Amino acid sequence: MSLSRVNSSAATLTKNRTEESIVPTSGMCVTCVDGCIGMCEIGKSAYRGHEVIYPQPFGVITTAGEKTYPVDYSHFNIMGTAVGAHGLPEDSDRAIFPAVDLGVRLGHDKGIKFRYPWIIPGIGSTNVAKNNWEGIAIGSALAGTGLTIGENVVGMDPEAVIKDGHVVDTVDLKNRVRLYKENQRDGYGAIIVQANIEDTRLGTQEYAIEKLGVSIVELKWGQGAKDIGGEVKIRDLGKAQLLHKRGYIVLPNPTDPHVIKAFERGAFKEFERHSRVGMVSEEGFASRVAELRKAGAKYVFLKTGAYRPIDLARAVKWSSKYGIDLLTVDGAGGGTGMSPWRMMNEWGVPPVELHSMLYDYLEMLRKRGEKVPDVAVAGGFTFEDQIFKGLAMGAPYVKLVGMARAPIAAAMVGKTIGRAIAEGQLPVYVERFGSNRDDIFVTSADLRKDLGDLAFERLPTGAIGLYTYYERLAQGLRQLMAGSRKFGCSHIARSDIAALTKEAADLSGITYIMDVDHEEAKALMNG
Q1: Which CA distances in Å does 98 have to 89, 94, 95, 476, 481?
Q2: Can you list the domains of the chain with their CATH numbers?
Q3: Predicted structure pTM score
Q4: pLDDT on residue 63
């Protein structure tokens, strides 16, 4: 059985002519007919070429790979128990699931505090991020979780003021930070500013620290969606030329007269803006960490992707050596912007494999008596059971699970419902719950009580949508943890999950389900 879906996908707006008869290796129709208009990816590539590399339509979608990996987090089950309580007294009146503490502290001084053990690990200059930022930022801040402003936000801002190659003022970045900070409650959560090569050259993080009061910055080696730099589509010639002037790779060249004429006559409708790939070295990494601390960063994070194992080892070792406050490791297969579709499906180390290697490398640090950094894992997480498994797989080192597509989806749905309320066009599926935000969003009563009527009415419904989704995750996670008798995140252990197949067990080091408690059970039965 093929693990990949080839030559047709909703992501590339392509399909096969013979949908029931497809060659599994090539994805082609069993009978490719002369005269077909070209609905498949091969056919569409014959007339749109490189445009078909990327998921479409750009700017209103997030995308994840369709490849079926040999092992994924569904190949593990959560283990519950009928005895004991970790983190609370063994008292049925006190050890109840609403009492589970989901709070997490991290950083070199444990000064960063989250209400929930998850973070949005980097959404940047794509339209889908920008167009939903209000809901994402406010919802994250109200929930007390982390949010990372991804790469290229300054470079993509046409109103950014850049002098002598360095940013001195912005509109977009300033607004993104403000929206989060103004809605933080009781010091929970964190806003983080990430940087790639172009951001570093522009001095984006130094500007964020000095001018915007940002205390946490993140170095970016990459992500799980692709192993090249960030990419977006540009539909405006003037903006494409501005980004070309600012040093980005823009394809085709927006200053070429022939290209300009082709664009103006409609031969193509979008330019591509690409970031450069990084060239990591230990000396350069150590130097940049020192520069950021000297500039006033209180905490420095590192985000890396699904690269080969030696690169993961570098990330782990150097995070330990140079005191990185949070290392985020993102497995292959997902993305929030414009990652090449085939790359998203066919490159990199999948999440379970990557996170298993990560645990092994962190264990090596511990055994050598070296500092073990706080860690977040990412790669297709969406619900509370997966969050539990991600925390357990890397316990006790993994403190957070990173999610981006799912929170964006929740914010987009909330925004869409708000628009439908305003237009009086609620679909029946939603209208059965009510016709206003108080009735439709189940968290409205609590938010209205906590924030007051005026502040609640001002909330964008995208923020309510994200907050409500997080509330569901929190209650679901508390229930799972209570069933495992773990009443705080620090008590979750690798023994709280079991592998359902021998392959999953061998790969991860997690005990095969038929071997769980085997010796203890045998001793009890023979006692």
Answers
A1: 14, 10, 9, 10, 10
A2: 1-53 (no CATH), 70-228+279-527 (3.20.20.70), 231-274 (no CATH)
A3: 0.95
A4: 85
